[in-house]
Amino acid sequence: MDEEEEEQKIGKSARQHSCKNLVAERKRREKLKDRLYILRALVPKISKMDRASILGDAIEFVKDLQNQVKRLQEQLEETNPEEDGGEQGGAGALCNGDNSDENGLPQVEVSQVGSNRFFLKVFCEHRRGGFVRLMEAMTSLGLDIVNVNVTTSEPLVLNVFEVEVINLKSLILSIFSFPKDLK
Amino acid sequence: MDEEEEEQKIGKSARQHSCKNLVAERKRREKLKDRLYILRALVPKISKMDRASILGDAIEFVKDLQNQVKRLQEQLEETNPEEDGGEQGGAGALCNGDNSDENGLPQVEVSQVGSNRFFLKVFCEHRRGGFVRLMEAMTSLGLDIVNVNVTTSEPLVLNVFEVEVINLKSLILSIFSFPKDLK
DNA sequence: GGACACACGTGAGCC
DNA sequence: TGGCTCACGTGTGTC
């Protein structure tokens, strides 16, 4: 009927295209928007409501979650000495070298005080965050830190750890014989 | 030539606005695109490359990660009933509370021993990794940890920190008065 | 009034 | 060919 009449105009191609593409585009936009909102709802930390911020927060959140998963897996491995599975890299938190000064090598002394218990004295220059890294290194190695005493007379610091050992003593020694790993 | 004629018609306001808005819009689009790509790079499961799919995959991935975290936490609690893995310790990542167990509240005591120096005693149940998180929390708050002494008689542990304060005491108190944040 | 963020319709490219 | 996605420039609203 009328449908065929209008076609003789020049505008057919354009009009048809516009009309169909229009609604399709609308749907696409709407879908995108919905997913963005869903993503925003999943992310607890919302800095701002704008799209870019939503994405940015989502990115950070994903990173945080991944770190958290990694940590938990490491912790689980620690508490469960025999455990199969994962080949994913753990225990790699030691090597973080952005340090240029060569002096101040830590003096390390290991003495055995029980069947699987050790005193570990680390005497070195004070570095911010170094102690935490030391702790993390040990715990990530499966060492149970029973007691720790840190005494500073700047710029020097003496760390005394009492650790319950799960792994071998040789492992400990090998680790602490690479001072650069501890910086 | 013709350009100047046309400008007088509607006025230059429109043109200037267009020109500035144009480039701004371009930047916005580009930023959005970049973040989308970053997000896509973080997500291992990539079904398709189109925007909606990227968002969809990201959504699913976040859900998966959350489930995984939950599972790991449960597992950790299960194998080691006394301990609790907690929130990840990042900068300012203290407030992330879904916490149900109420027992084992740490006793915290803060005493001022100098103009900006404090003793901080934290007496609580021993939790694996808890001490490191404590340290990280403090350092991330700008506290200079001068001295620390940790003494354990399982399952209890007494942490004594001597800290040089950069921020306000009220900040410290406010933080340590919410024990659930320290888990 | 200007900076900013968004939705819109449209042209172009790709299966 | 037609459906689908994307980038673009612009109009409009808000702070």
Automatic annotation (TrEMBL), chains A, B:
Residues 16-65 form the BHLH domain. Residues 76-86 have a biased composition (Acidic residues). It is found in: Nucleus. Keywords: Nucleus, Transcription, Transcription regulation. This is BHLH domain-containing protein. GO terms for molecular function: DNA-binding transcription factor activity; protein dimerization activity; sequence-specific DNA binding. GO terms for cellular component: nucleus. InterPro entries: ACT-like_dom_sf (IPR045865), bHLH-TF_ACT-like_plant (IPR054502), bHLH_dom (IPR011598), HLH_DNA-bd_sf (IPR036638), TF_AMS/ICE1/BHLH6-like (IPR051358). SUPFAM superfamilies: ACT-like, HLH, helix-loop-helix DNA-binding domain. The keyword Membrane does not apply. Residues 1-22, 76-98 are annotated as: Disordered. The keyword Transcription applies. Belongs to the bHLH protein family.
